[in-house]
Amino acid sequence: MDRVKVVVSAGTEAAARPLEDGLDGGSNGAIVVEGCAFDARSTVELVRRVRPTVTVIDLDGSDEPSKAGLATIREVARVVPPTRIVALCHSSDAEPSVEALTAGAHGVLIRPADAAELVAPVLAAAFGHCVLHRPLLGALVGSTAPRDSNRDDELLESLNPQYMDLWRMVADGLETIQIAERLYVSERTAKRLVASLLRRLKVANRIQAAALAGQTGLLDDVRAQAPGG
Amino acid sequence: MDDNVLTVVLVDDHQLFSRGLELLLNTDPERRVRVLARTEHADKALELVRHHRPQVAIIDLVMPPPGGMAAVEEIKRHYPDVCVLALSGNDDVGSAVGALRNGADGFLLKSSEPDELIPPLLAMAAGVSVVPPPVISVLVESWSKSGQRSVSDLTGEELDLLRLVAAGLESLEIAERLQVSERTAKQRVAGLLRRMGVTTRVQAAALAGRAGLLVS
Q: Which residues are CB-neighbours of A19 under 8 A, at least 6 positions away?
């Protein structure tokens, strides 16, 4: 098998060298690190020249993920798309990791103390797989969990479409006057309708109605419909 | 040296594939992997894991009943520390997501190059999930649509506060529960809303509901 060419990008030389040593020295010849770069521009230049199979980008910095790191991911993904980008985070928080994926990374790992532990994931990325630290996969998969509550289904079926629309408006945080305008009714009537909705939902106030709307998946439908108009 | 060998069991009803994979993994020139056992029956998977205690179980999703999906779930339920790699011959994103939801730590297509299987296995044993790009796209999209996005990185304290807010409590009531002044309670709620990227309590409550925080 050919050696997998890798470029390392990090904020400082001190952050880059251990990665280079671990990947190059710890891979038994499977990986060759072609060079290191320390900002978006020089990373793009290096990647363009070397054409590595994988570009490892360290998102170090106190403001993880560092703006500079994300900018580097975006630039490399835009200018040299064939290279596989593996981003390194320093915590298992999901939000910065997802930002890295959205910016164009094919993998997000937690930077290990011993960079030799990156060899297998970097090779897996070189073969075209996405590699994620396990907590990130857990968080992403959690967002697909189906809501399974019979009570919620009954609730949704018991409300007529007018009440459903009203419920969405309440959950979106509309004030009574705004609801009145949307429904072409007086403010007093709108207030009465909302009160009636809350009674049907068996909740005490609008905040609870919003929470219940989120829980039953009512707001997911709205998002799903949004792109189509 | 033996400590560095990754131990694996295979669960696949296709003997040709399963034996081929066993041979290939066991003859790795660097001797990084050893296949301890194989079975063709999904309902024998748990027994196989119990008996051999491998680091990784490779499970074909498409098998006769009870099926690979059930085997994934059963193994992760009884042996959460055993890594489960789900395999499938078809690139159906839905079944990949299903396997991951059932606890699988990774998913690969059977069409992956055989000699490219070992790095993903080693990565998985080291706590890294390996998944095809189309599956990640679906997961990231689902993530950004769900309330999970705004609540995933909140601390335990912040989550408790969010539950109080979503229950519709007024600032004064929250202050009493937290045994702080009303002003401090207001400040904390404002900080929470900022962290979640929303401007009102109603929005925060809706996101909390969506993220499943209120299901007891």
A: A8, A10, A33, A36, A56, A58, A88, A115, A118
Task: Determine the residue of chain A that is closest to B117 in CA distance.
Answer: A124
Which of the following CATH numbers is that of domain B148-210: 3.40.50.2300, 1.10.10.10, 3.90.226.10, 3.40.30.10? Answer: 1.10.10.10
Q: Given CB atoms, is B212 within the 8 Å cutoff of chain A?
A: yes
Specify the number of domains making up chain A: 2
Domain stop point among A108, A142, A176: A142
Q: Which of B30, B126, B208 sits opposite A211 (nearest CB)?
A: B208
How far apart CA A5 and CA A21 sit, in angstroms, is: 14
Query: One digit per residue, pLDDT tens: chain B, 216 residues?
Result: 456 899 999 999 999 999 999 999 999 988 999 999 999 999 999 999 999 999 999 999 999 999 999 999 999 999 999 999 999 988 889 999 999 999 999 999 988 887 789 999 999 999 999 999 999 999 998 887 776 667 877 888 999 999 999 999 999 999 999 999 999 999 999 999 988 888 899 989 998 988 878 865
CA distances from A161 to A158, A166, A185, A197, B202 (A): 10, 9, 17, 12, 21
Interface of B with A in 33-62 (CB under 8 A): none
Tokens found for residue A188: 């007093």
> What pTM was computed for the model?
0.78
Do A192 and A171 lie in one domain? The reply is yes
